[in-house]
Amino acid sequence: MGRTRAGSSATTRLSFVAMxxxxxxxxxxxxxxxxxxxxxxLYIAAASVSLAALWRPSQAVPAMLVAAIAILWAATLVPAAxxxxxxxxxxxxEMMSVEMEEGRELAGLTLVAAWTGYLALxxxxx
Length: 126
What we know:
Strand content: under 5%
Largest sheet: none
Order of helices and strands: HHHHH
Number of domains: 1
C-alpha cells in the first residue's frame, strides 16, 4: 500500500480510524454505568488521540497523557480485579460481582493504555 502525505500507510491510517471507532463505541456503552462520565471522557480522549494521529503523527504528548491516566487508573483496579479470573469476566453479559465489573474496567483501561502508549511511542520515533 502506498504512503500518504503524513507518511503513514493506508493500513496504518485505517487502524487509527478503527481504534477511534472502537473507543467511541466503548464510550457509548458506558452510559448505563454508575459513573459514566469519567469513562466516556477517557474513551473519547483515546478516540481523539487516535484520530489526531492521522493529521499530526508526530504529536506525542496528548497520547502520553491519555496513556498515563489509563495506567494510573488501572493500577487502582488491580487489587479487586485480581480476585477474579479472565474467563469469569466474560461468562455472562450481566455483572455478577464487583470483581467482575472492575476486571472488565481494567481490561478497557489496559486497551486504552496500550493503544495510546503505542501512538505516543510511534510519534516520538517519527
